[in-house]
Design goal:
This protein is mainly alpha-helical. The protein has helices at residues 27-32, 42-53, 58-89, 98-134, and strands at 3-5, 12-14. A two-stranded antiparallel ribbon has the order 1-2.
């Protein structure tokens, strides 16, 4: 896709854009009268191109991965709790083994919930620390 670089701010814009997406100047006018604007340094254009190539900050990837882990742990917790309920209400396990099986499933459910809770607390604390670093 063809792009046009704004002569005022150096932002890359689509070739068919009427106004710059950054400074909102009329691109047609700006391109016809480039002498009215201070020329943009080539270094600035290269920096903008390099910034556009960066997909995600490593912290954002880490936060997304932790979020997925928390959701997985919560899903496992619900599955174990449902399994415990099912086992306790059916004859799938013998009468004498049922309490141990239900306890084990409820323990796994509680463990998964605890892991997701701990991960959530850690994620919130990390986000707060990251915001303080930015400021």
């Amino acid at each position: 896709m063809a792009t046009v670089i704004c002569p005022k701010c150096g932002t890359k814009n689509p070739a068919n854009a009427m106004n710059c997406k950054n400074c909102r100047i009329n691109l047609k006018f700006a391109l016809e009268h480039p002498d009215m604007f201070e020329p943009v340094k080539q270094d600035t254009v290269q920096e903008i191109e390099e910034m556009e190539e960066i997909e995600e900050v490593p912290f954002q990837k880490k936060a997304r991965n932790i979020g997925c882990f928390i959701i997985l742990a919560l899903v496992c917790s619900v599955i174990f709790a449902c399994a415990a309920s099912y086992v306790s209400s059916t004859n799938i396990v013998s009468y004498y083994e049922r309490p141990q099986t239900v306890r084990l499933l409820l323990l796994l459910s509680a463990l998964a919930a605890f892991i997701s809770f701990g991960g959530g607390i850690w994620l919130i604390v990390s986000l707060i620390k990251h915001q303080k670093k930015i400021r």
